Amino acid sequence: MKLKKICAALLSAALLTSSFAYASPKGTAGNDGSSLSFLGNQFQVSTMTAEAANSVMRRPCSPDQPMLIVHIDTWNYADPAKIIALIPEDIKPYVVFNISLSINWSSTDHKWLMVQDGYECAKSWLKTCADEGVWCMVQPASGGQCHLPDYDSSGNIVNYPNKSQFVPHADDDYENTIYAEFFRDYPNFIGFNYSEQFWGFESQDFPVTPIQRYQHFAKLLKLCNKYGGYLNINWCANYWSAALNPVAMLKRCPEWRSACEQYSANLQLEEKYTQLGFSEDVESEVLGAYLSGYCGNYGVRYDETGWSDSTWSGSGDVTKEQYRQITGLPIHMERMALNGATIIDGPELVWADDFAEKWGGIKDGDYSCRSWDTKDQYVNDTLGFFRKLVDGTIRIPTRQEVIERTKVVVIQDNTTGDNHNKYSTYPTLFEGLYRMSGDGNLDKNYNPYKSTGRYPTIPTVYALRDSVAKSFQVQIKQSSIPSRWSSISAKQDEFNKLFASDYYGNCYAGRYENTWVTYNSNKDGSNCGAVLSLKYNTCKNLDVNFNQYGNALIKEYSDRIDIYANNFDEKAQTTLRTDTFKISGCAAKPSYSAKDTGRNQTASQISESYANGTYTLTVKHNGPVEISIQCKGNETGRLSNPKESSVKAPAYPSFYTGVRQYEGEFFDTQNVEGNVANGCGSGVTGFWGQGFLKYGAKNNAAVRDTVSTTKAGKFDLTLRYSATSDINNVDLYVNGSKVKTLSMPKGSSYSDWKTVTQSIDLKAGDNQVELKSNAALDGSLYLDCFTVKGDFGTGTVEDPDPINGKIIQELTVFDKENAADWSIYYDAKVGSVLYGDRDLTITSMPKNLVNAEAIRTACDSKLSTNDLGKFTAGADATIYTAVDTRVVENMPEWLKAWTFAGCSVTTSNDVTLMLYKLNVKKGDVVALGTNGGSGNSANYIVFAVPQEKIVKGDVNLDGVINGFDLILAKRGMANGFTDTRSFDAADVDKDEKLEKDDITQLQNFIKLSAKEFTETPVTKPAPAVLTEPADDPG
After folding, report:
1. Looking at the structure, do residues 682 and 595 belong to the same domain, yes or no?
2. What is the rounded CA–CA span in Å between residue 290 and residue 298?
């Protein structure tokens, strides 16, 4: 199946939206203080002109509109369209796709080993994201190494490998740079993501200093404010990086501090888990930047790289045997449900934990197609958790609420001593509070987990910027800590007076209002638990007990307790581990409901017991389980009216009208020489994406891609190629019709890329573009990409004209994106083409539907979650809908009014479509609803025949009920029917199943021992007449 076409259809709703979502935007020094050589003396200051920060965000990010950053990563050699296609429709509106130009640079050979030209690759993938109608940002850097240029405080470009591509001097507003270009050219672009800003500065090939980087950041932040975008920086730390941490850069770089004071809403800061050590220091400073008013949003970028097993001693090679992606879920839960984080970025490593290419791809007819899939752990852990934000289960508290809950802030006011003293958190700040027992401080703080949730995270800040920040109840200067707390116990005494205990036990449990975050904080997986003092529910306590990887998000209500528990172990998916939830003080035996929500999840085993007012639910599971326990007790004085989530999906970007670009390395192929997914090291230069395609010289070679437009018309297709021989025997086809044999003159080498332009006609919707050899080529042909330029419309597809048949009249297709591929035909039979956008055919069907009138739908319409269309019956008729068995498992509501017909249609790609029927009268309006919105299915098809009259018991349809009908009914029960009418006649009790009771009743009727059939019909809703969706269903 053509995955790129699927991806285009997935966002048809997005492409209908024509406006932005507008909302108010809410180097290292030595221990003696001297500058180390790799920092240099970069302290020159130029004052930034002050101006009000008043930008309207293109894509707002807030507690009501959280952000999931999904990586389109060059380490994955990723096709952006196919990565986009993997994200579920309910989550996609919240997603920002990060075009991750991952860094792989050879300092020995002084060349890129991954992504030869970051600027051109970024533009290409930006075009794809814009065409797909999704939000995106670009990650140009990891550490100091960067694919895009830095400009110093004077606006001069800092030396780096690709320096010659860019303007040497940046205007003060950066409008003459590529940074403004991205904002201007791509309405879906929201900013830049700079990763791991703690390493790689002042090297031979990347001499940029940390101060120069942050001077550059200051200008970028101002630019982001102008265009309503974001500068996203993720921070992790090691022993030598204290002078680069968030507090340090506010202290050391005045330009940066001024920009943060003016444009804080445009800064996103993230905790990054790449390094061992400084876990709580990083958390404290990142949270501190947010709560103190120096950044607008913060989040987490979890990373396997920073994990260490419980068995690791702190020296030698670190082991990661106990790592699973689920180990990041406790961090996400606490940061978002308790501390106000609004962003999940990643997690990493992307190719290990998120997406993986299916090597060898998949077949679609004669074409081979590259294909990617999501990892189970990404679906069950990250996407599963984010869905709890989307559905309102988790409410993210506001900045003011977090400050009120947190109470304590530390202001890093030290100006002397080593860099840790001047910039890091106080070394023993977390010890004796929530730092895990046996763990160390600062660089020896390897464990990201916390021993208790009694004490909120303590933020460490540069200063308190605004009135909200200044509302902290307890403001402590870091320089005063030695005299304030003479011992760990003295610190504990002060915190215990501020924070009452809500629970007792040895696992983590933290609460805000009616939401509890609980998890097993033992890296080794040893059992732990806690007894939670209920605050909203009228029962007394909830005792939770977790085994390895166990965690639960718990919500209290007056009459129930909801639990989202997850312990998914991708390395032992069939192993069930036991977690228990014990409620004491019940007035009567509670009841529960539960469902597994994971993919490829072993079924959970849940048991209950009740005695003496205590209810125990034992949950053996491996993956996410949603549990609701209906329970009440007799406790009084409970809290009530917790704040409810008001999460709402951001609008999609405005429609992109610019040039589309289609990379050769992502083409579907036949008989080509080879695909170069990563062109670095190939000996070929100058390609625009991450790689290119070696088309080769075979006479039967071919490639294809899909171009979508909402407006039909003429377009210019420009093919970028290289060859060392003239090429005159490759034909260009559009939608199966030959356009022209292309003439491609040779170049001097395969790095000498040429272009050839041809005018083509495109229809509204999807268009298949192919290049096919008509004979052997004189030499190998390389293909970089092709671009398409023209009027793609406004994103709103015009209403299609109704289609009229004989029985099927006034067929109106609501799925405008794919309406051009719908049609009516009159001779359905084996060999008939099923869909207007696929070459799939019928291989078997019931004989009573041969030569039926039929609707040839678009297979891509399956991805719409809205109603697909309607028609008016031109005569009394029986209408059949053939539905993929994978859809039947979760039958759409509109089809539940139809009757199972007992037969199926099979297709040339081995899909079985089960038949359902509905009798209608002339003039009735027949509703055609959604196919379910799943890409892992085929769309339904529709047949219409004159209304069938069924006589129950007349299985062979000869007008007489006798022994021959009984024989045929028995054969049908054993082997199936070839005529839906025979199944209907044999189903004498009308329960839509052929079973022993039907045979017995038929036998008794023939023997005259029964004069009529006893019916037990299935209760069905009335058929619905569905209305056409609005142009913007989102």
Report:
1. no
2. 6
In this model, does residue 810 exceed pLDDT 80? yes
Which tens digit of pLDDT belongs to each residue from 865-874? 899 999 999 9
Task: Tell me: do 719 and 813 sit in the same domain.
Answer: no
Q: How far apart are CA 1 and CA 1024, in angstroms?
A: 32
pLDDT at site 283: 99
**Domain assignment of residue 796, yes or no:** no
| Residue 378, domain member (yes or no) | yes
Segment 942-985, tens digit of pLDDT: 999 999 999 999 999 999 999 999 999 999 999 999 999 999 99
Cis amide leading into 347 (omega within 30): yes
- Domain with residue 262: its CATH number is 3.20.20.80
H or E segment to which residue 759 belongs: strand 754-762
Contact 407, 267 (CB under 8 A): no
Looking at residue 20, what is its pLDDT?
30
Nearest Cα residue to 405 out of 510, 478, 330: 510
**Chosen domain end from 790, 819, 834:** 790
Angle between helices 254-263 and 210-227 (to 10 degrees): 20
Is 390 domain-assigned? yes
d(CA 866, CA 991): 30
Q: Residue written as tokens 């209608």?
A: 920
Same domain, 131 and 194: yes
Q: DSSP 3-state assignment of 197?
A: coil
pLDDT at 296 over 70: yes
Least confident of 240-244, 360-364, 874-878: 360-364
Domain match, 815 and 744 both: no
Give the model's pLDDT for residue 30.
34
Query: Rounded to whole angstroms, how far apart are CA atoms 354 and 375?
Result: 5
> Which residues span the domain enclosing 996?
963-1006
Residue 438 has pLDDT above 70, yes or no: yes
Which burial class, exposed, middle or buried, applies to 963 when counting CB atoms under 10 A from its CB (0-12, 13-18, 19+)?
exposed
460 pLDDT band, cuts 50/70/90, is very high
C-alpha distances out from residue 822 to 511, 639, 803, 811, 813, Å = 54, 57, 9, 9, 8
Secondary structure class of 1006 (helix, strand, coil): helix
C-alpha distances out from residue 352 to 309, 324, 348, 378, 692, Å: 18, 11, 8, 10, 24
> Model-level pTM?
0.83
The tally of domains found in the chain comes to 5
- Report whether pLDDT(52) > 80: no
Average pLDDT for the chain: 93
Q: Are both 857 and 785 inside the same structural domain?
A: no
The three-state secondary structure class of 494 is: helix
What CATH number is given to the structural domain containing 550?
2.60.220.10
Tokens of 472: 């902290």
Residue with more model confidence, 117 or 46: 117
Are 252 and 177 found together in one domain?
Answer: yes
User: Which among 630, 649, 682 is the end of a domain?
Assistant: 630
C-beta separation of 241 from 276 below 8 A: no
**Which neighbouring-strand residues pair with 614?**
611
Averaged pLDDT, 143-167:
97
